[in-house]
Design a protein that fits this description.
Blueprint lengths: L1 H8 L3 H6 L5 H16 L1 E13 L5 E9 L2 E9 L1 H4 L11 E11 L4 E11 L4 H15 L17 E6 L4 H13 L4 E6 L7 H18 L8 E6 L13 H8 L5 E5 L7 H5 L2 E2 L3 H8 L3 H62 L1 H44 L1 H5 L5 E4 L17 E5 L4 E5 L5
Parallel strand pairs: 3-5, 6-7, 6-8, 8-9, 9-10
Antiparallel strand pairs: 1-2, 1-4, 2-3, 4-5, 11-12, 12-13
Helix pairs in contact: 6-10, 7-8
Length: 447
C-alpha cells in the first residue's frame, strides 16, 4: 500500500513510463487513507456559514476564513450523537474552534471535517448558550416586571421543587420549621443536575399547577420554591434550560427561584416572580418569623388606634367648622331677610293702608244702612201680603164656618162626607162634626 501511494504522487520518469492507470475509486480511496492518516484529530478555527440541520438531527455547515485576500472553505458536519453536547446555538457568522477529524467521502471524492467538539472562540460554550437564551427569552418578555406575580403573605401551603438528598431541602425545612411550624409543605423531589434534570424540574412545576386545578379554593398551593444548592455552572445548568424557564413562566402559582449562592444567577432566577440568593433565603422570604408577625400586628393595632383617633379628631374639627359656617350662613340669611322686611314695610307705609281701610269702612257702613232700609221695606211688604193671606185662609177655615152653627156629617163606615141623603140607608151609623166635638148617631129614616 505504501509503495502504491508513493507511486501515485511520484514525479519520476519511472512512474510516468509505467503507465499504471488508477480508477477513480482507487484514487479517492488512496486520498482518504492519506488524509485521514495524516491529520487524525485536529483543532480547526473558522467562521460558520451555510448552516443547516437535517431531520435526522445532523448539522451541516462550512468553516471559512480569509488569508491574504484569499477565502478558504472547509465542509464540516456534527452528527446527532454529538449535537446534544453543544449547549449554545450554532449560527452563521459565529467564530468557533472545532475538534474533529478529516474524513473523505469516496463516492463524491470530497473531504470534510467531522466535528466531535465545538466551542465559541473567545467565550465558553455554556456562557454563550446562556447569553443566547437570555436574549431569546428577554425578546419574548419572559423577564418583564409586569408579568411577575406577587408573593402571598404568610401562605398556608408551600410547594418545593428540589432534590431530597441535597442541602437545599434541609435548609428550607429548617428555616420554615423555626419560623412557622403550622405551614403545610409539599415536596416534589427531582434531579437537580445531570441527564434528565431539566425535564424533571419542568414537569414538577407543571404537576403543581395541575394539582391546583383539581383542588378547591382554600386548599391550593399558594407559592413554589424551585432551586438547589450552589455548584459550578455545569452543576447549575439544568436551571439555565429553556424548558425550565418556560415552565416557570407559564406557572399560575407564584415561583421563588433559589438556585446556588448569591453570586450565581440563572435563567430560572430571571424568569421567576422572585429571586432568592439561597434556598435558606427563599424560606425566609416566603414565611416571616412569628416574632416579626407579632410585632407587625402590634404596630398595625397601634396604627389603627391612631388612625381612629385622627379620624375622630378630624371629624370633630369638621363638625365644628360646619357648625361655624352654618351659623355664619344663618346670620347672613337673617340679615338679608330683615333687610327685605324693612324694605317691604317702607313700601307698605308709602301705600298708607290705614287711610284706605277707613275709606272702605265708611263705604261698608253706608252699604249696611242701605241694606237695612231695603230689608225693612221688604219685610213690611211681605208682612202685609202675609196678613191678607191669613185673612183669606181664616175665611175659608171650616172651623170658622162650624162656629156659625154649621156641621159636617160622615159615614162611619168609610169616613166619607154625606152630601146626599140617598148616600145613606136606614140603620147606618153616621158621625157629625160640630164646632165643638162630634156626634155619633144611627139613621132611622131617610127622606
Amino acid at each position: 500500500m505504501t509503495e502504491e501511494i508513493t507511486d501515485l504522487f511520484s514525479s519520476s520518469a519511472e512512474f510516468k513510463n509505467s503507465r499504471h492507470v488508477f480508477t477513480v475509486s482507487e484514487v479517492t480511496r488512496e486520498i482518504k487513507v492519506l488524509l485521514e492518516g495524516a491529520f487524525g484529530s485536529v483543532w480547526v478555527e473558522g467562521e460558520v456559514s451555510n448552516f443547516t440541520a437535517s431531520s435526522a438531527g445532523h448539522w451541516y455547515f462550512s468553516l471559512k476564513d480569509r488569508e491574504n485576500d484569499q477565502e478558504a472553505v472547509l465542509s464540516a458536519a456534527i452528527f446527532s450523537r454529538s449535537t446534544k453536547d453543544v449547549k449554545f446555538k450554532l449560527e452563521n457568522g459565529l467564530k468557533v474552534i472545532c475538534l474533529g477529524r478529516i474524513s473523505v467521502y469516496p463516492p463524491h471524492g470530497k473531504y470534510s471535517l467531522i466535528i466531535e467538539k465545538v466551542e465559541p472562540k473567545g467565550i465558553g460554550g455554556l456562557q454563550l448558550a446562556l447569553e443566547q437564551l437570555k436574549a431569546k427569552l428577554e425578546k419574548e418578555g419572559f423577564f418583564a416586571l409586569e408579568h411577575k406575580k406577587p408573593i402571598p403573605y404568610l401562605p398556608a401551603k408551600i410547594g418545593v421543587v428540589t432534590s431530597l438528598t441535597g442541602a437545599a431541602i434541609k435548609d428550607i425545612l429548617k428555616v420554615l420549621d423555626r419560623r412557622f411550624k403550622d405551614v403545610h409543605i409539599i415536596i416534589n423531589p427531582v434531579k437537580v443536575q445531570g441527564e434528565g434534570a431539566k425535564e424533571e424540574i419542568a414537569q414538577a412545576v407543571e404537576d403543581f399547577n395541575r394539582l391546583n386545578d383539581q383542588l378547591p379554593e382554600g386548599e391550593k398551593v399558594e407559592v413554589l420554591i424551585v432551586g438547589r444548592g450552589g455548584g459550578s455552572i455545569e452543576d447549575l445548568w439544568a436551571f439555565n434550560e429553556e424548558i425550565v424557564a418556560r415552565s416557570i413562566y407559564n406557572s399560575t402559582i407564584p415561583v421563588i427561584s433559589a438556585v446556588g449562592h448569591e453570586r450565581d444567577v440563572t435563567i430560572a432566577d430571571l424568569v421567576a416572580d422572585l429571586r432568592a440568593a439561597t434556598p435558606s433565603v427563599a424560606a425566609e422570604l416566603v414565611i416571616p418569623r412569628q416574632e416579626d408577625l407579632r410585632r407587625k400586628l402590634e404596630e398595625l393595632i397601634a396604627s389603627l388606634k391612631q388612625d381612629f383617633s385622627d379620624a375622630i379628631t378630624a371629624s370633630r374639627n369638621q363638625v365644628l367648622d360646619l357648625a361655624h359656617r352654618l351659623k355664619i350662613a344663618a346670620e347672613h340669611a337673617w340679615e338679608i331677610n330683615t333687610n327685605r322686611l324693612d324694605a317691604n314695610v317702607k313700601k307698605l307705609s308709602l301705600l298708607n293702608p290705614v287711610v284706605k281701610l277707613e275709606l272702605y269702612q265708611a263705604k261698608l257702613a253706608d252699604l249696611a244702612r242701605q241694606i237695612y232700609v231695603r230689608a225693612q221695606h221688604l219685610v213690611n211688604l211681605k208682612d202685609s201680603v202675609f196678613k191678607g193671606i191669613i185673612e183669606n185662609l181664616s175665611s175659608l177655615n171650616p172651623l170658622n164656618i162650624l162656629s156659625r152653627g154649621y156641621s159636617v156629617t160622615f159615614r162611619l163606615s168609610d169616613g166619607k162626607i154625606i152630601k146626599d141623603s140617598k148616600s145613606v140607608s136606614t140603620g147606618q151609623e153616621i158621625r157629625t162634626k160640630v164646632y165643638q166635638g162630634e156626634i155619633t148617631s144611627k139613621v132611622t129614616e131617610v127622606s
